[in-house]
Amino acid sequence: MSEAGHKFLAKLGKKRLRPGGKRATDWLIAEGGFSKEKRILEVACNRGTTAIELAQRFGCKITAVDMDGQALEVAKKSAATAGVGHLIRFERANAMKLPYEDASFDIVINEAMLTMQADQAKKKCVMEYLRVLKPGGLLLTHDVLLKEARESVRQELSQAIHVNVGPLTQDGWEQVMIESGYRDVKVLTGEMTLMKLSGMIYDEGWLGTLRICINACKKENRKQFLTMYKMFAKNKQKLGFIAMASYKSSNR
């Protein structure tokens, strides 16, 4: 039975599971102005790669949430191994109903999750992030960009990764943020590098990429890997990534 695309790639050994890879995440981190004084929430932290990097680089305390209990267990072990387990609190929580007080966080970071939500659910999520952000707080997001508003591309992507996804155009993503109450939205867009060889080498290194390729060639993995690879290659001119830095008004 085929797995959800991100879980399948993680099984192969891929650590960077975001559409724009390390380049987009690094841009978000640069925009965030992270420091140990700021309170951080990461929603859909998955296996904790970004949270661990933030804790290592800036010494900030992070609350990291996900709905996948298995991914959270992996994240906890990885954080402990990296020596930052004391800085990150991993919790199971629903993005649409976060168990935190209003105005609790300076920064909310959410990568590659909104793409998997229906359009109204996207707004519900980012409005919930707005609620828990402090006045003047910052939302950092990273998602799949639809370069052409074609339903067929959405359907192909959903079928290939076995998750019902809803990527938007740049105008569509910006509209979600503005209509949900954010201001001063800053955007970076670029090519999808998730399964591109040069992108994998940049994100995972030569040895990591070799490990992924060896695992992908195994009989039990080959069919799903090729299906995903061919879909992304076919639609490389139609799909990309979008990273956004969106501010909450200082008056709210």
TrEMBL record:
Pfam families: Methyltransf_25. GO terms for biological process: methylation. It is an enzyme of class 2 (transferase). GO terms for molecular function: demethylrebeccamycin--D-glucose O-methyltransferase activity. Keywords: Methyltransferase, Transferase. CDD domains: AdoMet_MTases. InterPro entries: Erg6_SMT_methyltransf, Methyltransf_25, SAM-dependent_MTases_sf. Its EC number is 2.1.1.164. SUPFAM superfamilies: S-adenosyl-L-methionine-dependent methyltransferases (SSF53335). It comes from the Bacteria. Residues 40-137 form the Methyltransferase domain. The keyword Calcium does not apply. This is Demethylrebeccamycin-D-glucose O-methyltransferase. It comes from Streptococcus mitis. The gene is rebM.
